[in-house]
Specification:
31% of the residues lie in helices and 21% in strands. The chain has 494 residues and is an alpha+beta fold. The strands form four sheets. Strands 10, 13, 14, 15, 16, 17 and 18 form a seven-stranded mixed sheet that branches. Strands 7-2-4-5-9 form a five-stranded antiparallel sheet, with no helix packed on it. A four-stranded antiparallel sheet has the order 1-8-6-3, with no helix packed on it. The protein contains 13 helices and 18 strands. The longest helix is centred in the N-terminal third of the chain and has 24 residues. The chain is globular and about 85 Å long.
Amino acid sequence: MAAMTRGSSAVFRRLLIQQYRRRCLRVQEVRGHAALRSLPATLDRKLPTCGGSFRMFGRALHMSAARSGAVVQFKLSDIGEGITEVTVKEWYVKEGDKVSQFDSICEVQSDKASVTITSRYDGVITKLYYRADDVALVGKPLVDIETESGSDVTQEEDVVETPAMAREEHTHQEIKGLKIQATPAVRRLAMENNIKLSEVVGSGRDGRILKEDILNFLAKQTGAILPPSPFQEIRTPPPALAVPSPALRPPPAAPQRVFAGKDVTEPIKGFHKAMAKSMTAALSIPHLGLCDQVDLSRLVALRAELKADVQCRGVKLSYMPFFIKATSLCLSHFPILNASLDEGCQNITYKASHNIGVAMDTGLGLLVPTVKNVQLLSILEVAQELNRLQALGTAGQLGTADLSGGTFSLSNIGSIGGTYAKPVILPPEVAIGAVGKVQVLPRFDASGHVIRAHVMNVSWSADHRIVDGATMCRFSNMWREFLHNPASMLLHLK
């Protein structure tokens, strides 16, 4: 009987030891900080025989998890314009760096603009998903950030913004030259009340816009929330922007490639990819070409008179502002040249604003920023806006807003030295002009005497599906007369 009792006790002891081991081994199956935080309570409730050592071990793991914050995947949000991929041009951080909200993380280059991505969180960079010159996809992680303990962490990057949600401003993406600091809640409040954040003065740290700033801005509206007028899209820069500011970071020097007798194949990226795409689409347009000559002798004299006065205002006055303004005056008489045609050639949209693009040769390639609402601007205001765009273009900092929305384009091949050009239409526009260099040539005056004249050639291209040659010729004649006698433009200025 005693033997049976001892045998039963031994079996019961073995069963207890197996159960004890199984329960203790469950500790190794716990994964994640949330499970580790609940470990002490689990041990207290289920393993009373494990002793104080396991409770101390659980408390140590809990304290370690509390000190280290959550690791968040910071994803590339939608930057609009249908862009699905970008090229990582430069990293401003490396693994192990500590960042705060709105600190710059990297600069990416799409086929339309340069964008600086800024941090949404305070924390430490734990992983970079791309190297410089790699192609990053919208909606995929850029970096991992270990957030600071106690910070409010939400996975907002998991939802990629659509262009409709983004409107024209993105929560944590800075278009070059237009950095606006505000939290998502403040931006949503501004969007719901149709307020442009660029018009609100921020009272927070480093100019950050707070909720109170939005409410104060609303109070000044006397209860009427008015939509921004088209003219407000153009902000006249201070005179200091006439000269490239030191704050505008010049583009990095292109590395010198050494070709050791071998062919090199590189993918087409960035602006070159956009150019290839737009020019391929342009080949489907039947082009109508027209060339003419313009006597700019009076304009040359007028510019010489105004140049000193304009320079005192910090503005560089070239011939291009006169060309742009004359184009706008002509578009008012020929609205079909300021229109767009849909892909099916079924509808024509006549544009109300004269957003005239100006082709620029930059270190990044051919860019066409637009001077918005030229019909509302004076020649001086056009010159100021053109100076701003040229400064940003030289620094490689033109944003999406500067490079989109064009309704008519001008190309100044004469700045390099060409006399004639055959410009290619930029879809969905229907016309484009190219001006050559100004040459001093002999001409006959009304009395038949040979005189010294400043002559410039101009070439026009139009979409022959909706623009006929007579319309293009009449437009060119009016444009030529405005520049031949620039004083006549005063009769049409408002």
